[in-house]
Each structure stands twice: as structure tokens, then as C-alpha cells.
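Appendix B. Worked example

We walk through a single record from start to finish. Start with the input: the chain for Methyltransferase-like protein 13, Quillaja saponaria, length 216.
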Amino acid sequence: MQKDVSSCNTYNYGDSLYWNSRYIQEGGSFDWYQRYSSLRPFIRKYIPPSSRVLVVGCGNAVMSEDMVKDGYEDIMNMDISSVAIDMMRRKYEDIPQLKYMHMDVRDMSFFPDESFDGVIDKGTLDSLMASETWRDLYITYGDPKVRMPHIGKPVYNWKITLFIIPRPGFQKPETCSSSTKAYLEPVPITEEGFLPSSFVLEDPDSHFIYFCKKDG
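Next comes the structure step. The output line below is what the pipeline stores for this chain.
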């Protein structure tokens, strides 16, 4: 199952007790924002299967499983919820390519520098920034006007490429001529980091993918 959380209140989302309670009550699995099948073109383009991958806020999503099926060999999954991590360790104990660790993304001192070649985040870092990795793929409902003032700060030294894809289940208007291929093309942003004034979102509740790479 996947969920569109465009209108969700993020209150308590940084609290492990909230997530432990939620995973105990709900069970099952779900992927926030998008499934791997939708994100595959972007992930394969920027994070090759041979990469050491870190998935932050993995929860009980099946995305990492799908990535292993697609050839990825080394995926570390971390989450603030001990309930989710214990659940996933049991579920994937026979898949050596998947590792799970109970950890708060706000303190990743356990990992030495350059432990990973790429990081994937689907919502976890909407309000938290990390500056120690070289390649990050952020999937979020935050448009550039909201996100770029944070991830575009000079201190991070990111070169940012933006993609926009409609939310799952979105039905394009009959008058719309865009294709799936069009979603794979980077979206231009202004020098200030915003969408051009003439740009119109096909889906007002689109999801935004920011590929951030260290410049230099």
C-alpha cells in the first residue's frame, strides 16, 4: 500500500513513540509518496546498483526489497522506530543485501565519513538537513519555494536537479499532452531556486524529487 501524505500534519513525526505506536496498530507495509517502480528511473540514473545505499526512515516499506530484486547489492535501512526495525529484520533475515538499524537520523555518528555512495529519503528529511553525503535523493511534497531555501543554502554546496511527478493515481486531463517520458526530464529552476513563473503544475499535489550532489 502507498499513501499520499500531501495534507498530513507532521506533528510528532520526529517522536519514536509515535511511530512505534503506529506500526504496532497498523501492521502491514506501505510506501510513502511513491513506489520503487515509479522512482526507478531516477534512482537507477543517480545511484547505480553497485552503490552502498542508505535508506533513511525506511519504516516498513517494500522499496528496498524491490531494489534488491532490481540488482542492488548493499542497502542499509534505518529508522527511528525500533518496532519497525525489528519487524523488518525478521521479515528479511534471509536477504543479506538488506541490513536494518535502529537509529535517529539526527545523530548518525555511528557511521564513518564516506560510508555510503548515495542516500534515499522519502519524507524523513523534509524538515531536517544533512550535509555530509555526496549524493542525496529527496522525495517530498515540498515545492521549491518551500524546500530550496533550506537545501539550497551555500553551506551545503549542493548542485540540485529537480524532477516533478504526479501523485499515484492522478488522472491527467484529456487536454494534457505530457507523457511519462516527460517526467524523466529535469525541471528548470530560476537562479533563486524557484520554478519559473510560467510553469504550471499538471497535478497541484505533485511530488518533488530533488537530486542533490556535492558541487566540486
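Two observations about the output. The chain has one domain: 2-214. Residues 62 and 107 are 25 Å apart (CA to CA).
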